[in-house]
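Checklist before submission:
- one chain only
- standard amino acids only
- sequence pasted in full

Submission:
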Amino acid sequence: MFTDIPILYLLLLAIVSGYLLGSIPVAALVSRRRNVDIFSKGSRLAGAGNVFYEVGHLPGIIVFSCDFAKGLAAISVAYTLGVEGILLLLPASATVVGHWFPLFARFRGGDGLSSLMGITVAMLPTLGILAVVTGAVVAIIARGTGHHPTLWGGTAGYGFLLIRSPAVENSALVIAVVLLAVIVLVRSVIGHKRRGIESV
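Returned file contents:
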């Protein structure tokens, strides 16, 4: 379909598409419909976790689903454009950056975890689903026992991916996803500590 277009142009298009998809401020839009300024509540991040606890469970689930879908969509667009393998990390990273610094919300965003999960499932369907489920279960347990759910859940989910990486054909892609996850998790934990928040 795009065989006559140089791969560099297609890659740039995938990166821009990823950033713009990541920039859709779902959390801010959903919160605004409930007359809540999510940037002044809780962690002050426009993410699913903050909406879940500060606006309501249903709005939080909606935001999570949409942010997750943004990650799926960004990688789907990249695949459609012919971007494959380790190069997928570029539009994936652009999607996360778009969520961090959304063009459509004055560059105020969330921590990108929900979009990261969508990216993970899109890039590594079977392992990604297992990693997300593992991380979610551990996060729920961690929250119930007073531990940091993002840190423990993320470590469990992406630790699972890292352990499994030698056994899969596309191990380099798995490791790349794990490295992106480490960046997202470190930024999330540091951001929440600065705000004095123990959970997302």
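Reviewer check: The chain has one domain: 7-194.
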